[in-house]
Design a protein that fits this description.
This protein is an alpha/beta fold and 393 residues long. The protein is built from 13 helices and 15 strands.
Amino acid sequence: MATRFASGIGVERAIYPLWQNAPVTPTSSRNSSLTSQLARERIPPYTPVSRAKTLPRRRWVAWAASKGERREPRSYLLSGGRRLPSLRHSRVGAMANNIQKQIFAERAQFPSTRTKAIKAVEKFLEGRTLVTFFTSFHHVVEISGDDCDMLQSVLQHIDTSKGVALMIDSPGGDGLAAELIVNTCRAYSGTGDYWAIVPGSAKSAASIICMGASKILMADTSQLGPVDPQIIRREQNGWRQFSAYNLVSSYDKLFSEAVKTKGNLEPFLQQLQAFDVRDINHYRDLISLSEDIAVKILKSGMMRKQTKAQIRKNIQLFLDPKMGTISHARSINRIEAEQCKLTVEKLDVHSALWKAIYELYARTQDFVIGRYACKCVESSDEVFTVPPPQPRS
């Protein structure tokens, strides 16, 4: 069978047409007010105006916002290869007054709308500099090695002498990229470590990044996830996603039963033909790689005083679906993370810190599910984004 995707760590993909922006609807009573506000503020479909400039497509673009600069930073928001016109080139900009600029920035979620929220969270972080790393649950994207380049571009230009706090929200991606991001955050932090803040969901490879932190800040609504590899295979009915554990265990079970059977082997042989032993060996390697990355990161961080065997035993809930998660999409909450011996600090959902975190989370999440970005790495001074993938013709 052909294998389309075999990442070290699996990724969950939201099934939506790439060219659609599903409306945001409140999912719970605690976020209905702010989420509804963001949905109302979201910019309507953009119609180019004659004075708007056109830029070539780029993989990512940066906002260079200097401190003390009164005007809006140069914001390159790409959509189909076009730049969103600046305020002075737009119909709104023609009105040229502060309230209209503010409204326009709110609708488009300009960096300035999140800078205040970033600084509000930093007041509670004991001097650490906050960096956000969001990848979309709406667009079909995943954590990749290129994200580390974006992260370094931000970390190089900010003060990290008192440490780094990384706010992360992502469905996951490549485990090797996650390992690289962990090493990058540690290298740039003046304290040699970083904190991970999980306001929503940090699944799969994003959970690996959280494991690399010295502590994880989670509310009772926050979610981590299993880190077992996911495989997308071509089946008779199209492409399907499977857990590498399930594929390997199914093959082993069939093979074992075939060896023990003394009668008709034909049913077993027919089923074993669906597997390629080379793929099975590859899946075994991916499982070992996933486990090795998680254990190695924890051994050099929050579990440095424990042996690798102890660490492996502690995090079985993350490694083996049979230990309770069953599905790769299953969430691992704060209490379960603590039971796995991870260093977790509880965020009180009624606290001022959580209020600040949630506003930043809601605004950035709204930005990466829209038409201008699918990934965002941001501090109070620097922003890098990746435009959404274009629909295939």
